[in-house]
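pinned: reference chain
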Amino acid sequence: MKVFSAGIAELDGAFTANLALQLDLACAPSDPGLVKDFTQGEYGRIESELRLFDVFAGLPWSLMYKRVSEMFPDAAFLLVGPASGEEWVDDLVDGSAEFACEVALALGLDTLIGHEAELAQRYDEHLAAVRDWFAGRPGSLLTVSVREPLAMDWVVNHLVAHGLEIPQVPRQSGSRLRLPRL
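pinned: its structure tokens
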């Protein structure tokens, strides 16, 4: 079972990585070198990572949704970030500088400054392309806002539908992960 974040927002990656932590699944670590490999069409290290881990959050994984959905047709995909490019740019500006640099590299930009309108448009295009790609694959992609109180329940249901057995595991806060009714 493989789980991929299909969104390019920092929130997508953070939510998906946290999910992996809570469910004790092996999550591929963030590696800016893989973004560079992806932009240069070098897939050797990327394919090694795909064999080693269960969950893939952030870049370059979210840009590879077509390739990995064909490699892993039973994989679950999540899209949990901002609903619009404008929201994403605001989050990007307020977020980590390291992630912003990764985004710039992945999108072929030297800097994000002065490119806000282009970035918003590219984010909206990415969302539309992801939704279009998965339109012919019912059940593969779950789109949910992490601000939705039941987001984790919906994600867990999505993963269970993909065959993942989820044990009761402690959350970081010490409470238990609440498993939804199916």
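why pinned: Residues 173-182 have pLDDT under 50 and may be disordered. The beta strands are 3-5, 55-56, 76-79, 141-143.
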